[in-house]
Amino acid sequence: MHLQPIRKLAMLAGMAGLATLILSAPARADIILTVSETGGPTVGPTVLAVGSPTDNGGAGIASPAFTGTFGDFAITNGSAGESQTTSLSQAFQTALNIHNNGTVAHTLTITFEASKFTAPVPNANALSSFSGTTTTGAGMGSLISSFQTLGGHALPTQTVNPFGTSFNNSITGSVTGLTAPFSIFQQVTLTLAAGEDLNFTARTQLSPVPEPGTIAMALTALPLFGLGAWIRRRRVQA
Questions:
Q1: How far apart, in whole angstroms, are the C-alpha atoms of residue 205 and residue 124?
Q2: CA–CA separation, 46 vs 51, rounded Å?
Q3: How far apart are CA 53 and CA 51, in angstroms?
Q4: 103 backbone dihedrals φ, ψ, rounded to 5°
Q5: Of 18, 34, 92, 164, which is the most buried if we count CB atoms within 10 A?
Q6: Quick one: what percent of the chain has pLDDT higher than 90?
Q7: How would DSSP label each residue in 171-200?
Q8: Which domains does the chain have, with CATH numbers?
Q9: In angstroms, rounded to a whole number, what is the distance separating the alpha carbons of residues 28 and 82?
Q10: Could you tell me the pTM of the whole model?
Q11: CA 212 – CA 233 distance, rounded (Å)
Q12: Which residues pair with residue 94 across a beta bridge?
């Protein structure tokens, strides 16, 4: 006769435990990659890694190396990652080798999303960098970094035309109105000559904008540092 209340209590306890588990579970953050060739196949979107940009004490998460043939392109040892600390949030993608297997120039687009960033908000200073080496230097490429949504809060596009045998570009800007959680997107477009090899790294970083009060305190403190140095010099001369 007493089994029904006991069963109800057990069910309620189980549901409470499940709710606690769900609420305490970390928010899922995916590293998502889409690879497409102009006039050719599209591969993805592919989830490369799952975790949080604040995992491992700010070391974040990184994908295992991916290797494969995408249309006329062969990618060897590519990777992507994201991390967040109190002073810096960043997303990056690298490819240790991209080779155009075709007999003419072809264009490849790699779109990368790193998600679940919580800082800095709402405003941030942004740095986007694009560097690499090529075997012929004949190709060209571009990188666009955007935030919150693909194409939203976008920094100006970096264009390298032609690559040269090595290149190292960066661009800075500011981002306003970010709300947590937000994503960082990178879209790399590469046009490689027939048989050309490319190694590249693309990185997007966000850092907090200093509070006006902090800047004012720093400016106020500068004369005091000068006064202290003057007093020490007077004591030495005395």
A1: 10
A2: 15
A3: 7
A4: -95, -5
A5: 92
A6: 70
A7: EEEEE----SSEEEEEEEEEEE-TT-EEEE
A8: 29-215 (2.60.120)
A9: 13
A10: 0.78
A11: 33
A12: 79, 201
Q: Which residue type is seen at 27?
A: A
Query: Are the CB atoms for 194 and 102 separated by under 8 Å?
Result: yes
What distance in Å separates the CA atoms of residue 12 and residue 56, rounded to the nearest whole number?
A: 35
If 0-12 CB within 10 Å is exposed, 13-18 middle and 19+ buried, where does residue 130 land? buried
Query: What are the structure tokens assigned to 120, written together?
Result: 């800095």
Amino acid found at 103:
T
Backbone torsions φ then ψ of 195, nearest 5 degrees: 75, 5
Q: Is 32 helix (H, G, I), strand (E, B) or coil?
A: strand
Output the CA torsion 58→64→69→74 (10° steps): 60
State the average pLDDT for the chain: 83
Give the rounded distance of the alpha carbon of 18 from its chain centre: 33
Return the structure tokens found at 225: 């540092």
The pLDDT of 113-126, averaged and rounded, is 96
